[in-house]
Amino acid sequence: MKFYMMHLMPYADLDLDYDQKHNSAWITLPNSYYDPKKGAKLYNRYLDELEYADQLGFDGICVNEHHQNAYGLMPQPGVMAGALARRTKKAKIAILGRALPLLNNPLTVAEEFAMVDNITEGRLIAGFVRGIGAEYHAWSSNPALSHERFHEAHDLIVRAWTETGPFAFEGDQYHFEYVNLWPRPYQNDPHPPIWIPSQGSSETIEWASHPSRRYTYLQTFTPVAMLVKYMQMYRDMAAEHGYEATEDQLGWSVPLYVAETDEIARREAQPHIENFLNKFLRMPKEMLLPPGYLSLKSMLGVMKAKSSIGTKQTIDAVIEKGMFICGSPQTVREKLAEYHSQIGFGHLLTLLQFGTLPAELTRKNMELYANEVMPYLRDHAAKKVSVAAE
Q1: Which PANTHER family is this protein grouped with (predicted)?
Q2: Of 14, 49, 87, 318, which alpha carbon lies 20 to 30 A from 296's?
Q3: Do 4 and 58 touch, CB atoms closer than 8 A?
Q4: DSSP class per residue in 187-210
Q5: CA-to-CA distance for 325 and 348, rounded, in angstroms?
Q6: H or E, element range at 78
Q7: What CA–CA distance (Å, rounded) separates 45 from 150?
């Protein structure tokens, strides 16, 4: 099992009474709520936290893309990846991801990712996403074209990474007379690893699991019951294609908080995880799932997985659903080991800062997790592999 620190870089200084006047922290929340002086300090604090994760021995650090909201201050995650490229030494840098359907020129991502891959000498993980529905409102992009633009942009980027140029690319969405990427990626056998985060679209799972790709699929912020379903869906689709999916093809992203005891962990985490759920994630359902964004089949599944968004949530409810891991090192170890045995994911992406969680508690969380949870789970996973091999 590999361990990653995921960061959303929220605007933690948000006036939490904003919802007295506004119904969402996304798209429609006036940017007058953002103070650049406070934001500048947050950016540098968050970069420090990700650099510290490298020092603590995490296998990777993760940044991502969101637009026009207080939930995540990374509209251009490549900027953060570039800042981290020279300041980290061992951890993979996962950009999870770029929302390909929003791009007018996907070659900018091919170039950007190739640069980071060269600077880090092969530590890049490329994440490609369709982007959640709110991003289509932010960019005034047609969600009905999401799948088509995603697939075509993906094909263009992979060809740019792997084929000798110049060559022409003629698609329905993108047209280039010259594709001739400089620089080429450092990882060229055949290209940087590609991960596909998703909310649970069956079309996305089917596409990622195809034998021509076999991309790592990441399930994000989902009840464990639905996580089990989606992980098994990937395995089933791989089996239909004639191969057995490995744990390396499956990943899970989940917020987590560990403290000295269960009581301390719950007390310290409660206000911040509830702010994350009820203030930062706040958006109307039509913003999350605009018409045309999903097929009916996927829409029903995602609505079930994300049914709690828009309703008031408590720490107890999300702990019970497995959407938040919280407790002493022993509690967290046992719970994650149980889920790993049940589900079999190979990549665990923990959100160790969430909502308004302050710097001192984030550092404490990181240190306890890295020193008292990760080593146990590495042993647990190694023993599981050993038993399976016998």
Answers
A1: LUCIFERASE-LIKE MONOOXYGENASE
A2: 318
A3: yes
A4: --SSSS-EEEEES--HHHHHHHHS
A5: 12
A6: helix 77-85
A7: 33
Q: Which residues pair with 129 in a beta bridge?
A: 99
Sign of the four-CA dihedral 380, 263, 322, 254? negative
Cis bond upstream, residue 358 (ω within 30): no
Per-residue pLDDT at 306 exceeds 60: no
Taking each helix axis from N to C end, the angle separating 296-305 and 202-209, rounded to the nearest 10 degrees, works out to: 100
| Residues contacting residue 37 through CB under 8 Å, at least 6 positions apart | none
**Cβ-count burial 303-341 (b if 16+ within 10 Å, e if not):** bebbebbbeebebebbbebbbbbbbbbebbbebbbebbe
Q: What is the residue whose two structure tokens read 């239909």?
A: 240
Q: What is the pLDDT of residues 283-300, one digit of tens each?
A: 998 898 888 887 766 666
Residue 373: C-alpha distances to residues 1, 53, 277 (Å): 12, 14, 25
Q: In terms of residues, how long is the chain?
A: 390
> Nearest to residue 143, comparing CAs of 289, 303, 298, 300?
289
Cα–Cα distance for residue pair 236/166, rounded to 1 Å = 39
Q: Do residues 212 and 190 touch, judged by C-beta distance below 8 A?
A: no
CA 100 – CA 204 distance, rounded (Å)? 13
CA distance 387 to 390: 5
List CB contacts of 317: < 8 A, sequence separation 6 or more.
308
Evaluate if residue 12 carries a pLDDT over 80: yes
10, two tokens: 């929220």
Q: How far is CA 333 from the centre of its chain?
A: 22
- 308 pLDDT higher than 60: no
- CA-nearest of 260, 264, 281 to 356 is 281
Q: How many helices (H) and strands (E) does the chain have?
A: 14, 11
- Read off the pTM: 0.94
Q: What is the distance between the alpha carbons of residues 102 and 96, in angstroms, rounded to a whole number?
A: 15
Domains of the chain: which residue ranges?
2-248+275-321
**Cα 321 to Cα 228: distance, rounded to the nearest angstrom:** 12
What the block records as the tokens of 320 is 């019970």
